[in-house]
């Protein structure tokens, strides 16, 4: 056997011993398994627990903050109060802090009665009935202006209802908001539409006129036809032809 034939036989023998399970070959398929389904998300159970909220301790620790809080509370109270009760309700050291007490007493909106030792809020207006309310409205209107209804309500919570009654009686004039018709400003009605003052409401005059039927037409005192030549001749003048 020639050398070439031996080499060919050796090459074939090598090919038979070669392992073809290389990276090109595909691995045997594994047993097919379905993809795992995600577990359903557990819902958090509803809790009926009501957690406690912090108390309204808006008094703060600064003297001026406590002063404002105490004055505002006194403003919302229609009746005079004892200092001890005000200190408890506002959680302020009014009865123990001398600096705070002096500031409170010297406030321009705080009234202190030394006889009863009671404190009250000094509103801009001081009235508690409809007659006094009308007097206050008249006084302000004479000065050239009206009064905001919210300011009157702060002094007397029944003021809006009393103003509406005065409006129906023709004693005051009011301005209402365009959106919901709430009372905004009030003025004294200086010119009232009654017979004593020589006037009537427009509606009453209109109703009286229409109830009598059509008025009679008075005869015309002017000539319906004007003749210029006749007028000139009557006056003694001559016309040029």
UniProtKB/TrEMBL annotation:
Mention any Pfam family matching this sequence: TFA2_Winged_2
GO cellular component terms given for this protein: transcription factor TFIIE complex
Cite the InterPro entries for this sequence: TFA2_Winged_2 (IPR040501), TFIIE-bsu (IPR016656), TFIIE_bsu_DNA-bd (IPR003166)
PROSITE patterns (alphabetical)? TFIIE_BETA_C
Q: Where is this region: Disordered?
A: 16-57
Q: What is its main location?
A: nucleus
Biased region (Pro residues) positions are 26-38
Cellular compartments annotated: Nucleus
Query: In the record, what terms sit under GO molecular function?
Result: DNA binding; TFIIH-class transcription factor complex binding
What role does this protein play? Recruits TFIIH to the initiation complex and stimulates the RNA polymerase II C-terminal domain kinase and DNA-dependent ATPase activities of TFIIH. Both TFIIH and TFIIE are required for promoter clearance by RNA polymerase.
Identification of the protein by name:
TFIIE beta domain-containing protein
Q: What is the lineage of its organism?
A: Eukaryota, Fungi, Dikarya, Basidiomycota, Agaricomycotina
């Amino acid at each position: 056997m020639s050398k070439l034939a031996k080499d060919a036989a050796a090459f074939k023998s090598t090919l038979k011993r070669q392992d073809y399970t290389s990276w090109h070959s595909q691995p045997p398929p594994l047993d097919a398994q379905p993809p795992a389904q995600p577990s359903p998300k557990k819902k958090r159970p509803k809790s009926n627990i009501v957690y406690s909220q912090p108390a309204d301790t808006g008094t703060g620790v600064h003297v001026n903050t406590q002063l404002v809080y105490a004055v505002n509370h006194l403003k919302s109270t229609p009746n005079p109060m004892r200092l001890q009760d005000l200190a408890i309700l506002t959680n302020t050291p009014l009865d123990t802090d001398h600096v705070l007490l002096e500031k409170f007493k010297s406030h321009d909106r705080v009234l202190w009665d030394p006889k009863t030792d009671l404190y009250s809020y000094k509103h801009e207006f001081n009235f508690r009935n409809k007659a006094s309310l009308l007097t206050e409205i008249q006084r302000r209107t004479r000065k050239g202006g009206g009064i905001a209804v919210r300011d009157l309500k702060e002094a007397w919570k029944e003021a809006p209802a009393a103003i509406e009654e005065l409006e129906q009686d023709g004693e005051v004039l009011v301005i209402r908001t365009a959106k919901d018709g709430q009372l905004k400003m009030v003025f004294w009605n200086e010119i009232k539409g009654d017979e004593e003052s020589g006037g009537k409401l427009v509606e009453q005059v209109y109703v009286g006129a229409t109830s009598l039927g059509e008025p009679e037409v008075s005869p015309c005192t002017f000539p319906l036809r004007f003749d210029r030549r006749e007028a000139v001749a009557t006056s003694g003048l001559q016309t040029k032809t």
